Amino acid sequence: MLDQLTILIIEDDEHINRIIFNALRQKNFECTQAFSGSEGKMHVTLHDYDLVILDLMLPGLSGEAFIRELRTEIGSDIPVIVLSAKDQLDNKLQLFTLGADDYVTKPFEIEELLARIHVHVKRKGINKPVNQHQHKNLILDEDTKIVSVKGIGMNLTKQEYNIVEVLVKNKTRVFTKQDLYELAWDDHYIGEDKTITVHISNIRTKLKQYDEEPYIDTVWGIGFRLSP
Q1: By C-alpha distance, which of 68, 61, 134, 135 is closest to 96?
Q2: What is the C-alpha separation between 43 and 62, in angstroms, rounded?
Q3: Per residue in 184-206, pLDDT tens?
Q4: Global pTM?
């Protein structure tokens, strides 16, 4: 199993914290939530994180104090992305001097935050995949839309990729033909046909070119699922 990128979210606004948490979990990040600077400090002393998302206006230990203690007392170089409604240049320069790595002004779009995270992952040379899913020797990369087996990229059609993505992201679920059709084609299922069966057969044939391991099982009378 691929390791997930670990992120600590320190934000006292429960609604904003939850939005960030849910968005990052959907992108395959492993996240921890903290709602005060003191709680955030406790987490970084007990666990290793790859990145911190930090609000400034926090109860107890402020965001500025958290950065100062993270860099001096704890001696950590974890990348810190600050979230704040303060957008004056002086405030930003002060935070960078303290040891912040990036600054995102509230209100913000979650896509911007994700883009900043990707930048810092690359800068720090973190080799953990940000948005990948693995099953056996198959790796699906949502960013590049590439499926590879034993390191070799597969030549899949759009619908074949969509089917593999649905299955890999839901490893224990059994999907009916209707489920797969509506998810892979983003269209209403019009009734029984051989479309899904043919596509599954094509995917299996392509997989066997690289690996004899079974990847997709037929659950008779129901549909398809990943092979355990």
Answers
A1: 68
A2: 15
A3: 887 777 766 688 999 999 999 99
A4: 0.56
